[in-house]
Amino acid sequence: MKNRQSIFAYILLGVFLLGGAAYLLAPYLNKSKVETENATPAANAPTFVKEGEVTFWKNGQQYKKIDVEIAENENERAKGLMYRPYIPDSVGMLFIFETSEPQSFWMRNTSIPLDIIYVDENKKIISIAANTKPYSDEGIPSLGNAQYVVEVNAGFTERNNIKTGDAISF
């Protein structure tokens, strides 16, 4: 009877040791699968294609220049910077509308926080929505009529001292 109990104890100990080892090794065994899954969307993410430049002006002086993609039709404006895991600080997107009117943007399917710069028909910055919330469907309105909108990485306007009243050219 004692021999039977010893065998059972060894089997039980072996099961616990194997279970513990599997528990400890599971994150390492799944790591390559997780990395592959995470790499797939980035590989399929849109790449930046320079279509123009936007220059920021302060007190009549050229202040900062960035490369931009241009969203000038409804489909391009609807997509914006969606599905981009990253954009360099030296690039952005310029949205061009036919008329100057109140605009509202959202962050649906946009994984990076942005600064959204609303610009009137005279190319003067009328409002800035700084550090917008990724993946949000909440409307982010301009504070007046805007014909142009520039999207850049969150914090860009603060780092470059870009303010309401400054101007842009493209």
Walk me through the topology:
Layout lengths: L1 H43 L7 E7 L2 E11 L2 H6 L11 E15 L8 E6 L5 E5 L10 E14 L2 H4 L7 E3 L1
Parallel strand pairs: 2-3
Antiparallel strand pairs: 1-2, 1-7, 3-6, 4-5, 4-6
Describe the structure.
There is one protein chain. The chain is α+β, with helices and mostly antiparallel strands and 170 residues long. Helices cover 31% and strands 36% of the residues. The chain is built from three helices and seven strands, in the order αββαββββαβ. The chain has a seven-stranded mixed beta sheet.
Largest sheet: spatial strand order: 5-4-6-3-2-1-7
Radius of gyration: 26 Å
If you average the pLDDT, what whole number results? 85
- Ranges where pLDDT stays below 50 over 5 or more residues in a row are 31-41
Fraction of residues in H or I helices: 25-40%
Beginning-to-end CA distance, first to last residue: 90 Å
If helices are DSSP runs of H or I spanning 4 or more residues, what is the number of helices? 3
Count the E strands: 7
Task: Identify the overall geometry.
Answer: rod-shaped
The major β-sheet equals: 7 strands, mixed
H/E element order: HEEHEEEEHE
Structural class: alpha+beta
Tell me the fraction of residues in β-strands, as a range.
Answer: 35-45%
Provide keyphrases for this structure.
single chain, 170 residues, alpha+beta, 3 helices, 7 strands, 36% strand
Q: Quick gist of this model?
A:
By secondary structure, the protein is of the alpha+beta class. The chain has helices spanning 2-44, 74-79, 156-159; strands at 52-58, 61-71, 91-105, 114-119, 125-129, 140-153, 167-169. Helix content is 31%, strand content 36%.
